[in-house]
Amino acid sequence: MALNAYRIKGFRGGIADDAYKGVTGAFRFGYGLDIRNGADTLKCNQALEKDSGSVVTDLILFFVPASNGKLYGFGNTGNIYSKDTPASAWVLRYTDPDGKIMGAAEYTNNNGSGSYVPYLYWATETKLKRIPFSGSFPGSVETFGTLNGDPAWHTMTIAVGVLQICDGRYIALVDYEGNFNNQALDLIAGNRTKTLLPQDQIAIIGSTKGDKIEEGWLWTWDKQQPSWILRRMIAEKGVNAMIQTDFIMVQAGISGGLYYWDTVNILRFKAFPGGGWVNPGAVANLKGVALMGVTGSDKCGLYSYGRLSKNEPYSMNLEYIPSHGKLTGVEIGAVTVYGDQPFASWKDGSTYGVDTVDPDNKADARYEGLVFDAGEPELQKGFRHIKLLTKPLPSQCWLKTYYRINEQGAWKQAYLEDGADSFDKEGNTKVVFTVETGDEEEKEKGKGETFELAFDLHPSGNNTPEIVAASTYFEPIGIL
């Protein structure tokens, strides 16, 4: 009987919502993959490397890439760090005696003497502080205003020409003339502001009602009105983060939900595969694609969502995992783009760091495909061989192939005809793995109704394996 083929070609679809189907080129899960390369092949992305050395000793919750060319980081025990250029070392500049810094931003306003100068603002639980860029730590630090107080977040951004600050049920405000109002906007009691997004002539505010209430709200305000303009509820445990790319993207709740909102229509369009959430400062725009640091999942890391051109699908990809290689037990504090490079802060137990892209090394990558049933889930099939077509394999690179039958048990490794467990022949472009040479105790090797395919890709320096297409050959057996 002639063999049929299950073919995989194209990988731009990213992580699918469903184990069985997705857009063209979608897969069930993966990490460390470069799926937006021009050739639509599967290869390793750049690795992350720890950029902070031993300097950063708490979790940075907000980055501020400043107009003076420096990058500042604000930690959850009060530490303020900076680096002068993307390549320079991190330096501890100041430790705020009031502890956790819950929001930070740059804003230019009147210094009280008729000069308009840029300041670095930050907030602790009940105090708004600042320092002019022309000043120095600690002597130039001043307490600028008293906040109503919030133990969690004072996210701040420039919207409608003023600096707006989350402050419990209120939005505090600093205007261009240097006036401060700690109750510029009062939301409905019981709501706590958490995140802000400037949008044309309005500010969008995201709020929460706490960890136990499935009710987050989106609000709009134009600074002119004495109250908010409109609000929209999301049935999740609060609105955590927002970002503008091709559209307004909202992350709400703890199960990884992503929402589209145009201030009228709202739609849950995607979710992170392991659930989790994004902290208010852990979003950034990387060349038009949203980059989000996911916490509270068994698949933590820096996810992207978007597309690079109108002919590509919108896709989700776990671009990077932290430099220590862990997907679980990691908190991503903040994400930014500085000097065209992504930077991300993280916490792992009592260890802290800031990562950025390693330009000289690719990352080990993992690809797990969708569940395949040939459109006949009731029919038993015998899966026999897996053929990979690749670009010429670079020296010291390799890839391994795995499969799973009927979504049961651990992944089984497929082997080459000579018994080797990996494809590592430099310069070769084709390889065939055999399904039957798996576990000798398997009673019906390669037989089942559904089939899944997975790859491990191992780079060497900046060289990477590159899969063009994969074909799994099988034969229909019967209904038993």
Descriptive report:
The protein has 480 residues and is mostly beta strands. It has 2 domains: 4-44 and 366-478, Jelly Rolls (Sandwich); 47-359, Methylamine Dehydrogenase, Chain H (7 Propeller), CATH 2.130.10. Helices cover 0% and strands 53% of the residues. The strands form 10 sheets. Strands 1, 5, 6, 36, 39, 40, 41 and 43 form an 8-stranded antiparallel β-sheet that branches. A 5-stranded antiparallel β-sheet has the order 4-35-42-37-38, with no helix packed on it. Strands 7-34-33-32 form a 4-stranded antiparallel β-sheet, with no helix packed on it. Strand 8 and strand 9 form a beta hairpin.
How would you summarize the topology of this molecule?
Elements: E1 4-9, E2 14-15, E3 26-27, E4 29-31, E5 33-34, E6 42-44, E7 46-50, E8 60-65, E9 71-75, E10 79-83, E11 91-95, E12 103-110, E13 116-123, E14 127-132, E15 142-146, E16 156-159, E17 162-167, E18 170-174, E19 180-186, E20 192-199, E21 202-208, E22 216-221, E23 230-234, E24 239-244, E25 248-252, E26 257-261, E27 266-271, E28 277-286, E29 289-295, E30 301-306, E31 315-320, E32 330-338, E33 341-348, E34 351-362, E35 365-368, E36 380-390, E37 398-405, E38 412-413, E39 415-416, E40 430-434, E41 447-448, E42 451-458, E43 466-478
Mean pLDDT: 94
Q: What is the CATH topology assignment of the largest domain?
A: Methylamine Dehydrogenase, Chain H
CATH superfamily of the largest domain: YVTN repeat-like/Quinoprotein amine dehydrogenase
The count of DSSP E runs of length 2 or more, i.e. the number of strands, is: 43
Q: Sheet with the most strands?
A: 8 strands, antiparallel
N-C termini distance: 18 Å
Structural class: mainly beta
